[in-house]
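User: I'm new to structure prediction. If I give you an amino acid sequence, what do you actually give back? Let's try with this one:
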Amino acid sequence: MESIRCWSPGHPSLVEIRELSHAIKLLENYHSRDECQHQERSRILAFCAEHPDALCRTCITGHLTASSIIVDHSRSRVLLHRHAKLGRWLQLGGHCDGDGNFPHVAWREAVEESGIPDLVIDPEIIDLDVHVIPRLGTEPQHLHLDVRFEVVAPEDCVPRASKESTALSWYALEELDQIDTDDSVVRLVRLALNDEGGHAS
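Assistant: Good question. You get back a string of structure tokens that encode the predicted 3D arrangement of the chain. For your 201 residues, that looks like this:
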């Protein structure tokens, strides 16, 4: 679907912005589609107000992350990865590490973790999700306050897994009950494939 909002590689807005204030503005401009999303938005904004280091993983209580659901060119399947540490099939994404430009973080992580350089992102937030990351080794249990986007992959692309994944695979919505994932991923896939959220193309 055509969209003037889409950002391709080289777009001037696909840059790092190391300001929490920029992240807060993006969250404030997100139009929550329902009460649950309104509550998640309020929860994340409250966390940012209480934690000036919310963009950094050194914020032990929790930190901001950004992720994306990658849709194939035909808009019939999504690319998920089996997370190397968590062992579940999830969307691609990661830590902001100081970058308050959520679309840039989500796009950067998607490129790095999929091995697909020509991804196109719709910079409009389509979903928010606050979830607990369990204790892993010396890393204590903490929150990920995740800001989510839609990304579209070019036709005939060949994904290549990074060290963050043990596998990458394309899935149709009806195939998700065959894999170990979670409700928030299913919600995100429904948003993308039903075109209820982003409009990247």
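You can read the tokens as a compact description of the fold. Here is one thing that stands out. The domain at 20-193 is CATH 3.90.79.10 (Nucleoside Triphosphate Pyrophosphohydrolase).
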